[in-house]
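Recap for those who missed Tuesday's class. We walked through two folding examples back to back. For each one, the amino acid string is listed first and its predicted C-alpha cells come directly after. Nothing is annotated here on purpose, so try labeling regions yourself before you check the end of the notes.
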Amino acid sequence: YARDGSRPDVMTVDNSVADDLKKAADDYRKKDVFDFRAFNATKVELTRNGQTVVFERVKGQGETPDKWRRVSPNAGDPDTRKVEALLAGLADMRATSFADAKTKTGLDAPALTVAASFDEGKKQERVTFGKVGNDVFAARTDEPNPAKIEAEKFDEAVKALDELSK
C-alpha cells in the first residue's frame, strides 16, 4: 500500500514498486566506467607517469577498414587490433561498488587518466584512475563519488598501454 502525503487516499501498488524502494541508492547508479565503445571511439588520450599517448582513428577509404594511428609522443601505426583490444578492455570496466567521501582512492596522484572522444568526435569523456594498495578507483566528471573497479581489468589495460607505447 502507498499513500500520497497530500491526500488521505491509500492506494495499492505493485510489488515491484515496493521492491524498487527497498534498493540502495548505489543500485541505481551508472555502473559503466566509460560511455564510449571500441567501435565508436575516434580519439583517445591516455596519461600515465607524466607521459601522454594519443591514438586517433583514421577512416578507411572504400573497402579499406579504419585503422588507429599513434599521434604522440612518437607517431606511428600500431597494431589496430591491439588498440581496439585496449579500448574494449577500458569500455568493459564496470563499478563493483562506490567509494564514500572518507575512502582513500589515490585520485590525488592519478595512476592513469583517459580522455576519449567518440560518436564522430561529438562526445567526450574523461576518467581518472587512482590506486591504493590492491584497490583501483575510477572517477568520472559526471559522478559524485569514485567507483571501485576490478584491479585485474585495470592492470590489463595498463599492460596493453605499455605495449602500445613502445
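Example two. Treat it independently of the first, because the proteins are unrelated.
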Amino acid sequence: MLKRYLMTLCLLCAAALAQATDRDQVETEMESLSEFALQQALEAIAEQGGLYPFAMIRNSDGKNALIHYKGEPDKAPPAEEYVKTLYKVVATTVRQSASSQVAVIVRQISVPTESGEAIPGIWVLVDHRLAQAPKVIFQPLVPGEEKGQLVPGTPVVQSTTDNLFPRMALPSAKK
C-alpha cells in the first residue's frame, strides 16, 4: 500500500514539474517573439520616425510570418482602424493553423498620464496557443540625453482578455 502511494505521489510530482516546465517554455516563447517585435518597432521608429501597425505569427518550426499593410501608403487606413483589421486577420489565421504557436500585434500609441501629459510608446499584444492568458506590453519611449531623442523606458506588462488564440472553457462549478 505504501509503495503504491509513493508511486502515485512520484507520478503527481512529475506531472506538476512537466506542467511547470511547459509554462516556462510558453513564457519564454511569448517573451522571445514580443522582444523581437519590439526591436523591429524601435528600428522602424528610429529609421522612419513612426510606426504603422503590424503583426507576427511564429509557427511551431520557429519561423515568423509578418502581417502588414501592403497597399499604397497614401491609401492606408488610419492606424486605429487597421489594428482592428490586424486583430481579425491574426485571430482567424491562428485558429485555422495548428502550427501557429505565438502571435503579436504591434502599434505605436501615446498614453495619457494623470496630469494629461502624453507618453509615447509601443503597445504589443502577445498570445500563445498554450498560455493561460495573453499579455499586453507597453514600452514607453522617454526623452534621451540628446534633444528630441526618445529611448525605451521601463516596460509595463499586464494580462489581458484580448485573446488571439481560442481558450479552452473552464468547467463550471456544480452546486
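Answers for example two:
The radius of gyration is 20 Å.
Strands lie at 54-59, 64-68, 100-112, 118-128, 135-143, 150-152, 156-159.
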